[in-house]
Specification:
heterodimer; A: 230 residues; mainly alpha; MetI-like fold; 10 helices; 79% helix; 0% strand; globular; B: 368 residues; alpha+beta; Rossmann fold; OB fold (Dihydrolipoamide Acetyltransferase, E2P); 2 domains; six-stranded mixed sheet; 8 helices; 39% strand
């Protein structure tokens, strides 16, 4: 099975977008997960709702919201472009942002569960040994969260690979820039004679997703075994 | 070293109001389950905040509600061995042991890794992970980990309670070495009389969230759980009959031979039910321990039993006899009697080296 240069570009772009979407949202995901798992503050339910909203909202709505916020004429777009030089509109970075937002609930959910599973008595023990809160988090909480964090990251990665609605609404479908695998696939289905390409891309999507899940499973098992001390 | 605790905290219907002072050595916080022992050590460690009160370690205030002071646990340099080992599962034994060292200021690192691992017998375990250790090994690692953080005070919350009898016997000698070699003052929570009698230098007795007695082991623990604690010195071994003679304030005691050198100081626990009373000097008896004493109190208990408190040469002994005997022998305060204890009633299971008794070194506890 050989891919046309177009298809190859789309696959590569998709991987890049998904990778950066997950990598960039990881720190935020950890912070939000810890805050939701441990924090008690006013407006927690609201934050929770906001984080999980993309899960239930039509993706097009999320994409449109991103357009309103980060578009060239959006609320934050001009500011980010002029002051920080960050442009999302019609760039692959925008696709990554859309994927990050769509994958965020999955990342946070799995991570939060892993935070809740960490034995807080171990954190107390670390504190009596002289570790301040940051050290306790970095040396005890975070390592023990890794399996859940990994699961969340893989889910978010897979979600990013499949992201279509929000991406196409926000950054359109520009070959080489924002045309990710699903967008390319969609384009193939819209033109006569595109069936073969659509099929190839579908198979690749299945293969990549499957691979990601398997890798996560193997890695997760290995880490879990290490944590249990074998 | 000194530790001053004066704290108040409410937990639902339970009120904790505890005031005590501990000097060096091993201070046992002794009391029934639910008497508030764990909460007290959690307050000392900084894991629980008192509603009111203060805790002072070596003159350093670590919490004082009146002045709004609260030093976070990680800045107190107070080691804590919990009921469960709480080892970090993702680290090897070595990294667990060295965890606290990271955070100890260089000049305060007064415990040598080799010395501590040797003393606790951890050498062969260093590269294992906690999941592959036995319960006793885990608890030893936990003790070493707290010790190696060079604490100025070490808290131990029933460190043996999760272990079976054999494992307890395995750990006890290590605790004694820790007490004798480390020079770190220890606050040791327990509800086990033999453990406390064996390890403690002084006892703080907690009852329902309050301190009901505090002081030397002999004085505080006599009368608890119907037994008396006597401090005694080994004076002689009889190899022919396999006996050891002890000298205590109450008089000479003979018991089956114990492997201790002459001059060693021991604590002897005597169960009240093993003590007989006679009003005349007994003759032709098989029991070898006859101690002259004076009755100082009689407590009639529900049922047939009475507990008689005796003063024998300044030491307190407790005897359990029937109420009927109290009546028949006219046992009353002031009456001179003879307390009789069978030599074979001495149980050697509780033998151990001591807790800073008068002689300082090489002393032991024997429970009868």
């Amino acid at each position: 099975m050989t891919l046309s240069p177009e298809e190859y570009t789309a696959v590569r772009l998709s991987l890049r977008v998904a990778f950066w979407a997950v990598t960039a949202s990881l720190p935020f995901g950890i912070v939000v997960a810890v805050v939701l798992a441990r924090g008690r503050f006013w407006g927690k339910t609201f934050l929770e709702g906001l984080v999980y909203l993309p899960l239930v909202l039509p993706p097009v709505v999320t994409g449109y919201a991103l357009l309103l916020l980060f578009g060239r004429r959006g609320v934050l777009g001009p500011f980010l472009a002029e002051r920080l030089g960050i442009v999302f509109a019609f760039r692959w970075t925008g696709a990554a942002l859309a994927c990050a937002v769509m994958g965020f609930p999955l990342l946070v959910r799995a991570t939060r569960l892993s935070v809740e599973a960490v034995d807080r008595r171990l954190e107390d023990a670390a504190a009596t040994l002289g570790a301040n809160r940051l050290w306790v988090f970095l040396t005890v909480t975070l390592p023990l969260m890794v399996p859940g964090l990994l699961a969340g990251a893989v889910l978010a990665f897979a979600r990013s690979l499949g992201e279509f609605g929000a991406t196409i609404t926000f950054v359109s479908n520009i070959p080489g820039e924002t045309q990710t695998l699903p967008s390319a696939l969609y384009t193939f289905t819209q033109v006569p004679g595109g069936e073969a390409g659509a099929l190839r891309l579908s198979l690749i999507a299945v293969a990549v997703s499957m691979l990601a899940l398997l890798a996560a499973e193997v890695l997760g098992r290995r880490i879990a075994r290490r944590l249990q001390g074998a | 070293m000194s530790l001053d605790v004066d704290v108040f905290r409410r937990l639902g219907a339970f009120t904790l109001q505890v005031t005590f002072r501990a000097e060096g050595g091993l201070t046992a916080l002794f009391g029934a389950s639910g008497s508030g022992k764990t909460t007290v050590v959690n307050i000392i460690a900084g894991l629980v905040r008192p509603e009111r009160g203060r805790v002072v370690v070596n003159g350093d205030v670590v919490v004082d509600t009146e002045r709004g002071m609260f030093v976070r646990p990680h800045r107190r340099r107070i080691g804590y061995v919990f009921q469960e080992p709480r080892l970090f599962p993702h680290m090897t034994v070595r990294r667990n042991l060295l965890y606290g060292r990271w955070f100890t200021p260089r000049h305060a690192r007064d415990q040598s890794f080799e010395q501590v691992t040797d003393l606790l017998g951890l050498g062969p375990l260093l590269d294992r992970r906690p999941a592959r250790l036995s319960g006793g090994e885990k608890q030893r690692v936990a003790i070493g980990r707290a010790w190696l953080s060079s604490p100025r005070l070490l808290l131990m919350d029933e460190p043996l309670s999760s272990l079976d009898t054999a494992r307890k016997q395995e750990i006890l000698p290590y605790l004694e070495r820790l007490r004798d070699d480390s020079r770190i003052p220890i606050v040791y929570v327990s509800h086990s009389l033999p453990e406390v009698a064996r390890l403690a230098t002084q006892v703080v007795l907690l009852t329902d969230g309050r301190v009901s007695a505090t002081g030397p082991v002999e004085r505080v623990l006599t009368g608890i759980e119907s037994s008396s604690i006597l401090e005694a010195r080994v004076v002689d071994h009889d190899d022919v009959f396999g006996l050891t003679t002890l000298e205590s304030r109450a008089g000479r005691l003979r018991l089956p031979r114990v492997e201790l050198s002459v001059g060693a100081v021991v604590r002897v626990g005597i169960r009240a039910q093993d003590v007989l009373l006679a009003v005349h000097p007994p003759g032709g008896l098989s029991a070898r321990n006859v101690l002259p004493a004076v009755v100082t109190g009689v407590e009639l208990q529900p049922g047939a039993v009475a507990e008689v408190k005796l003063c024998a040469g300044g030491a307190t002994l407790i005897a359990q006899i029937t109420r009927e005997t109290v009546h028949a022998l006219e046992i009353a305060p002031g009456r001179p009697v003879y307390a009789i204890i069978k030599a074979v009633a001495f149980d050697r299971a509780m033998l151990a080296s001591d807790a800073g008794l008068a002689s300082g070194a090489g002393s032991d506890i024997i429970n009868v």
